[in-house]
Specification:
350 residues; DNA polymerase, domain 1
Length: 350
Amino acid sequence: MANIPYYQQKDIENIKKLREMMKELPPFCTEFFRGIEPRTSTRTRIAYAYDLSVFFDFLKKENPVFSKMERMDFQLEQLDEISVTDLEEYMEYLKYRFNEQNHEIMNQERGIMRKISSLKSFYNYFFRTEKLATNPAALVRLPKLHDKEIIRLDVDEVALLLDAVEQGEGLTEKQKTFHKRTRLRDLALLTLLLGTGIRVSECVGLDINDVDFKNGGIHIHRKGGKEVTVYFGSEVENALQDYLDERFGIIPEEGSEQALFLSMQRKRMNVRSVENLVKKYAHIVTPLKKITPHKLRSTYGTNLYRETGDIYLVADVLGHSDVNTTKKHYAALEDERRRSARNVVKLREP
């Protein structure tokens, strides 16, 4: 798959994984996944498959109708016997349970909401196609979500973070040994995340020819398959140029020939390695904040909104399909701007 773009490689891997997961689900689930395929990503369908697996485990363990049956023998029409009360018991079950390996699992509000949302999509499909006569999932109320504190880097922390990457101060002796070999890569990668707000998955998927220095942009594939160009400033350009001078001297492993960011094993970096990279440097600068690549994305969005005051521009650059998603994340900043405007309009000259 050396000549196949990264995002297509991931889709192929996800399709293979989904097919394996579907072998563990009742046969009627195949129709559901076929029906939603045109309008969902492979990652979304994998999440649905996992969530449905948890639901069928619940039925097997807790529901007398299903307890004496093997999961593969479940019949679609039996789901018509499920009531709203059964699904409310399922929500309670999700808070605290044990998986097949007898590992303890706890779900917070957002985890429960996702699993119930998956179940709603499942029931909606079969109710809409008239394969089920009832739709109890439509009557289940989703758990109330409490607002999470939005964690970002302050302006001075951004500068300190990039200084830490550039100089390596605060790293352990062992980390400093690796830092000598990865400094330019790490600086280019973090400068790119902080200077464009792209997702970590978009970052690791970049190929060398996705970087367009002539127009100052990078070509990326957004969630849902949309292709866009995200533009960068001079700081990002300089960091990428310095890294590429080094990158062209590295002979990658087979399959990673075009990858922009390489691991020390000369393979395309993955999401987990970037997460660990961010965590390592951020811990030096702000040990009390749990900084992830997504928090760097929020940091960029915050800075862009403060500079422009244009929430629609922020939504567009970050790739949010709904501006209300952006407004939700930057509501505090909007309120700050409204307060600052209270004395702008003068009613009478002093």
